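for ur thesis appendix - Cation acetate symporter. copy paste whatever u need, i formatted it the way the template wanted (i think)
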Amino acid sequence: MTTQSAFGRRLRRYYGWYTGSFLAFVGLLAIGEQFGMSPGVIGHVFLFATIAIYAGIGVMSRTSDVSEYYVAGRRVPAVFNGMATAADWMSAASYIGLAGTLYFSGFEGLAFVTGWTGGFVLVALLLAPYLRKFGQYTIPDFLGARYEGNVARIVGLVATVLASFVYLVAQIYGVGLITSRFVSVEFEIGLFVGLAGILVCSFLGGMRAVTWTQVAQYVILIVAYLAPVVILSYKVTGIPVPPAVYGSVLDRLSAKETELFVEPREIEVRERFGQRAADYEAKIAALPDSLEEERRSLIERLNRLRIDNAAAREIAHAERALRDLPKTPDQARATWEQARVEAAGRSRPPPRHAEAHPGDTPEQKRVARNNFLALVFVLMIGTAALPHVLVRYYTTPGVVEARRSVFWSLFFIFLLYVTAPAYAVFAKWEVYNNLIGSSLSLLPNWVASWGKVGMVAIEDINGDGILQLAELRLNTDVILLATPEIAGLPYVVSGLVAAGGLAAALSTADGLLLTISNALSHDFYYKVVNPHASTQRRLVIAKSQLLVVAVIAAWVASMRPDNILFMVGLAFSIAAAAFFPALVLGIFWKRANRPGAVTGMLAGLVVTLYYAVRTHPFFGGSMAQAWFDINPISAGVFGVPLGFATIVLVSLLTRPPPPEIQDLVDYVRYPRLPADDSEAQPDSLAAPRRRTQS
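the 3d part is after this line
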């Protein structure tokens, strides 16, 4: 304990100096901006300086020890594990996507705050201490030991890779978004620039390097998240405590919404979008003839422009329209349906920020309420089942420290989540008051800057030269990153926010990459294919798999499959359906056996994936095929209860697990000796544990 206490004191001293140095670094950049340092230089300095810090920690933490590589030597103090878990947890979705979702959805966006926070209560009560007492390295390790062998392990491995990969794609997408905006490179190039920062940490030192890097990343991301909203709170209200005062701004925002939604030009714009939606509906109904008619019309217009010696810009626009025209009726149907849905959405006023479960009819309100509850359920269960979060509790010195680190995780996450609603309200107040109603010729620079990366779009559909709300389209992921520019804050604050977003995306991406590569190298190669592999060979396999997965994830992210928050939500649904029933019943119900767990995990996973594919446009599905009008992000709401029911039913219809497995459940569940926090296990369990894991 003395050694552990000294280690903790040394860490506090190191990270205290690090925090002070980072704040001084930001202060120097702010002074530099006052003396004329350009925004481009500030963006480059923030990006490359922070990546250099993470790379330096990764190099210093490199290791070839298996325990250090997989679980950081099981010596991470609770406070620092809480910070690392918070950084691992607060991905690009929490940092970038949450404020944007609250901006657009208002009350409905609180489902994310409620679900994610509540999930850590389940982690503390149902999983973290028991998994830490079990020991080992990964979640499939537990499944393989508890459910007698490699079948359950492999199913768990597949689900681990799938959930973590979907989550990883969202993080790399966020990295590309940030680097492309603040370093002025193509989005695809930005992906691989950020990927280099991810790989340095996880490749060299595994969990040891990732842990100490994530602590450093948490410091940056929480400072970066709080600084602009505190400044904005002071600017709008005169009080720099956002959670305490944003309610008064929300009252003023509600009055502004009432005024804005009935403004005559706003109504005219929405009617025009409604007519556009009707036109697309008519064209879809008239396929395939309407496609040929559209092609003839575009060709005639292009020829007429050329004959009349029209401006080159008009001719180029007509050529692009002809080139982008769908080639087949099926492509036209999909493209026009997407455009119809967008136009129809812009023809309706957005939901009022403070309105719970908005809808024009009782049926629409019921659907909104059901989706809110389904999302809260999936996010809570998914939080408690995410492999890259649960494996963090293997890194603490013991069970007591695992419980404490859950508390610290909640505290450090709370600092961000309690502020996110204020972010959304202040950002919307600035947009509604200072941007809407402006002349299109006098728009601020941030509109054009973010427009270049496809995050902001403006269409003057009524041609009056004035920006109406319906004519402005903001991507969910741009709200937080652009808020400093929206509010007119110094550019150094924008650079700080970008550095925080990069820290959030990199920290989670590191943890996810490590989870996937460890699952492939440890749970598949070492436990299934070659149990006699040397330590060196295991680490080589882990690092090679890490590189392959990282490149594939970057390629998928370059396709921009959806916004960050949806991809993360789908990962939660997958993890919830595949893991939560098997983990909880494996800990609390001795009768759960291998056939039950395997069929339950497969049933939950298959139903969740089937529903997501059936209802999401990226996979060719539509909400017309939805069950009970539940959105695809909440697909796990069907998989979780099916998984529980299947495990219970199949386990009762088949033979119970052998006595040594039931003894393992007792060992994990109940205190035995003061040595509970050690890695020692009763001799009676050593043989069955070795047998079931081989």
